[in-house]
Each structure stands twice: as structure tokens, then as C-alpha cells.
Amino acid sequence: MKNIVVMMPGFSADCLETLEEIAVENAQVFKRYGGQNFAAIPCLNDSQAGMLMIWQLAMRELKGWV
Q1: Cβ distance 12 to 50 under 8 Å?
Q2: How much is the average pLDDT of 21-48?
Q3: CA terminus-to-terminus distance, the chain
Q4: Which of 1, 21, 25, 40 would you call most buried, defined as having the most Cβ atoms within 10 angstroms of its Cβ?
């Protein structure tokens, strides 16, 4: 495998530890073993789409409570 794109769906926001471990360290390991292109997709963070998704999930789970 020469090309890889990595997503972190378990995280809603980037943090330095995650970025360091996944986007930097794993990219180095991947390239050390012959990989050529490594891309880490950023989390949704506080983007409009990210906030809308969190709001929709909260509203769905809170039905009947609010």
C-alpha cells in the first residue's frame, strides 16, 4: 500500500496528542516502510457541519426529555 487516508471518527475535535500520534508519528512509520502519500483528515471541530451534527444527535437522544 503506497497511499492512505486516515480518519478519526471517534473524535469530534482535534487535540494535540491525537494529531501528534496519528498525523505525525503514524505518517513517519508509514513512510519508513515504503508508503508514499499519507493524509490525516481533520475532525469536524467547531465547523458548522460539526455543530449541526452534534445538535441533531443531542435532539434525537433527548426526545421526550426536552
Answers
A1: yes
A2: 93
A3: 49
A4: 40
Among the ranges given (3-7, 8-12, 55-59), the one the predictor scored with the smallest mean pLDDT: 8-12
Computed over every residue of the chain, the mean pLDDT equals 90
What is the distance between the alpha carbons of residues 57 and 5, in angstroms, rounded to a whole number?
26
d(CA 18, CA 62): 30
Q: Is 4 exposed, middle or buried (0-12, 13-18, 19+ CB in 10 A)?
A: middle
Q: What are phi and psi for residue 17, nearest 5 degrees? A: -60, -45
The answer to whether 35 and 1 have CB atoms below 8 angstroms apart is: yes
